[in-house]
Amino acid sequence: MSAHLVVLSGPSGVGKSSVIREALKELPTTWLSVSATTRAPRPGEVHGENYFYVSQEEFTDMIANDELLEWAEFAGNRYGTPRKSAEEKLAQGIPVLLEIEVQGARQVRESMPEAVLVFLEPPAWADLEARLAGRGTETATQIQERLDVALKELESSGFFDHVIVNDDVSRAAHELVQYLQ
Known about the structure:
Layout: E1 5-9, H1 16-26, E2 31-32, E3 36-37, E4 52-53, H2 56-64, E5 68-74, E6 77-82, H3 83-91, E7 96-99, H4 102-111, E8 116-121, H5 125-135, H6 140-155, E9 162-165, H7 169-180
Parallel strand pairs: 1-7, 1-8, 2-7, 3-4, 8-9
Antiparallel strand pairs: 3-6, 5-6
């Protein structure tokens, strides 16, 4: 049996990180890809663990050298999945999980049509608004920008192979694990 590449996408604040944390407890053999980003680290984030923090110039070079499986611009910053590590893990039979934005998921569909695309959505719009405001990491303008993008992303959920409603983190994580196995 070959390893699966599973892409988890969803609007900012929907709880992707929480669901992934629970899913990795259930299926610890899964490799969670670490994305490269041009955004500055948030308090407590660690280079190489949360993201690979790179300059705009370094990111441009990664694109030019075809070092990214996918990349997208989101809220003024660029994010991308380093290709080599993901391909190596899959070749070793290790399931790979990507936590990426909708734009990136579309690129993965083009380059790796066998990937399983999963969309995580909030139980209600008000839940998403409350979670983004409650993080306390962004300005009101940044939160509104993320909500504007989230509305568009929710409209594209039909593009994905599966949709999981994050009304219960443990249940949502268990459902995600089913796609990784």
